Amino acid sequence: MTWMVGRGDDGVGGSGLECAQKHYKLLQETFRHYAAGPGGGSASTMSSQEFWKLIKDCALIDKKLTNIKVDLIFMEANRDPPGISRPKTPMTSKKEKDNPDSELVPEEYNEALLRIALERYPVIAKKSPAEAFEKLLEDDIEVHACKSNTGIFRAQLLDKGVQGVFRTNRKTLEKIFMYYCNADNPYAGKKTSMNCSAFATLLRDCRIIDGNLSEAVVQNIFVCVQNASEEDDDGDDPNGGEDEMVYTEFMEAIAAVSCYRQANPFISMANRLNHFLRTGMTAISDKVLKGKKGK
């Protein structure tokens, strides 16, 4: 948001930055959630399709904020004016190639939301652009974003049948989890958390990446199980972090994968999970449990 001061947006940059800092976690979580969606591209950037998913989830379109305005806002936020470059921030991409012209990086996402706020709440924006930005974040984004049946899914995870399946397969799952936590660097000491790359490798080894469970879906699952855990966590997790998932998150991710693999809603989650553990993960049994190299 500090970059906007350099564009001559008097009164917006400083106060907008304060608002962005106040709601940093919300901005970070929503960006990661939608950037990992099925819109293509990297999970660290947000495509137009992914941005539109946020707009629709939050029901932001009205007479003031039209479809055309949203498209223009996306393009404007994605465009660097001649001679002006963005300063480095904690959420800024490290390499220029990570900032594609057709997708938003985090600071561009922040700017896009500010522009959305100015259009959606023009009366408030005339008085204070920062107040309009804060109203958008608190009344729209925080209330409606990232709410895609997360509560229902997590409630199903607490079912006795699901927990029973996890207990029955606990030793096997723990061995698989630890194996892939450390598979990329076995000499660095034992890790107890798994990054997205390792999780994707696990599923590739299971030979289940396909049309129903694409790489983009895998990234989205990884992000969603972390966001769900962070809702109940007031502080930083010393065992995980925003780019790693711990064992409890891994369990949720495996349950989510089982639902993608067997999408029939008339089959209970416990049965889908049990079926996946008995069939979908057999391809890595020898590799992990018997110490043999995968093919």
Structural class: mainly alpha
How large is the share of residues in beta strands?
under 5%
CATH second-level architecture of the largest domain: Orthogonal Bundle
In CATH, the homologous superfamily of the largest domain goes by the name EF-hand
Query: What is the averaged pLDDT score?
Result: 79
Number of H/I helices: 16
Helix content: 55-70%
Order of helices and strands: HHHHHHHHHHHEHHEHHH
User: What is the count of β-strands?
Assistant: 2
CATH domain class name of the largest domain: Mainly Alpha
Number of domains: 2
Shape by Cα distribution = elongated
Major sheet: arrangement of strands: 1-2
* Rg from Cα: 21 Å
Oligomer: single chain
N-to-C span: 48 Å
